[in-house]
Design a protein that fits this description.
Keywords: Cytoplasm, Hydrolase, Magnesium, Metal-binding. The termini are close together. A hairpin with a 4-residue loop joins strand 2 and strand 3. The C terminus is likely disordered. The strands form 2 sheets. The protein has a 3-stranded antiparallel beta sheet with strand order 1-5-4. The chain has a single domain, classed as Nucleoside Triphosphate Pyrophosphohydrolase, CATH 3.90.79.10. It has about 120 residues and is an alpha+beta fold. Helix 3 runs antiparallel to helix 4. The chain is built from 4 helices and 5 strands; from the N terminus they run E-H-E-E-H-E-H-H-E. Helices cover about 35% and strands about 35% of the residues.
């Protein structure tokens, strides 16, 4: 199964810093964080998720989760990612659809650039 990197905000940490830290830990990538695509909340569980665009500038050969749990990184086209997310994370799929149908390209990307989604293997 493939997942989109994410995780909990540490005390006194901004959500944008959390996003950058989590993609480094879970997917072994560094990049420039762009706009927030949206926020969804689960009030019953007091849980809030912010979804950001990230332009990847560096991919590490090894990273924390690759060493500790054997996690792998794989890139998907937007359409492939939408299919994977429909099976496992339909709420996250909504935000990728929002990006795909946006009239503005992701931050720091050319208008004709194909956007790809990063996911990591849980196994």
């Amino acid at each position: 199964m493939w997942i989109v990197p994410g995780g909990g905000v540490e005390p006194d940490e901004e959500s944008s810093v959390t996003a950058e830290r989590e993609v480094l830990e879970e997917a072994g990538v560094v990049g420039q964080l762009g706009r927030c695509l949206g926020v969804f909340e689960n009030r019953e569980h007091m849980h809030r998720t912010e979804v950001f665009v990230l332009t990847v500038t560096k991919e590490l050969d090894e990273w924390e989760d690759s060493r500790s749990i054997g996690r792998k990184r794989q890139w998907f086209s937007v359409d492939e990612a939408l299919t994977q997310l429909a099976l496992h994370k339909p709420i996250q799929r909504h935000y990728l659809q929002k990006l795909k149908h946006s009239k503005t390209p992701p931050d720091n990307a050319e208008a004709d650039t194909t956007t790809t989604a990063s996911s990591t293997d849980e196994t």
